[in-house]
Amino acid sequence: MTSRLLPETVKQRLGDVPLEKRFYADGKYLNNLMELEAELETMNDEMYQRYAAAPGNDFSIWVNEVIGDDKLARDLAKARSQQQAAKAIRDRVAFLRAKVPTA
């Protein structure tokens, strides 16, 4: 069974998270998926590994628990580099944007 994404859900996933739920990485607060993607694009491998290493992938956990996107969270958990993680976010954002009806 395929679940249908409601426009409200898509907008929530693409929007900013509440201030207290922002992701803190490398001295910056990240408010949404696009900011996370941009940070991953410039993050060095050592920093990426610190957040992505076991026991849990912090990126995946944040996306699952705060953004509410379990599919993207699984993709981030599988990513082996910050470039793969950034691409997973870029692809998912493009997919979600295609789901938002235009006025």
Would you give an account of this structure?
With 103 residues, the protein is mostly helical. The protein has one domain (16-99). The chain has 6 helices and 2 strands. It has a two-stranded antiparallel sheet. The termini are far apart. The mean pLDDT is 91.
Helix/strand layout:
Layout: H1 7-14, E1 23-25, E2 28-30, H2 33-42, H3 45-52, H4 58-67, H5 70-78, H6 82-99
Antiparallel strand pairs: 1-2
Helix pairs in contact: 1-6, 2-6, 4-5, 5-6
Largest sheet at a glance? 2 strands, antiparallel
Mean pLDDT: 91
Judged by helices, strands and strand pairing, the structural class is mainly alpha
Uncertain runs: none
> Can you list the strand order of the major beta sheet?
1-2
Number of strands: 2
Q: What portion of the residues fall into strands of 2 or more residues?
A: 5-15%
Give the SSE string. Answer: HEEHHHHH
Q: Whole-Å distance between the termini?
A: 29 Å
Shape: globular
Number of domains: 1
Number of helices: 6
Estimated helix fraction: 55-70%
Taking Cα atoms only, what radius of gyration do you get, to the nearest Å?
Answer: 13 Å
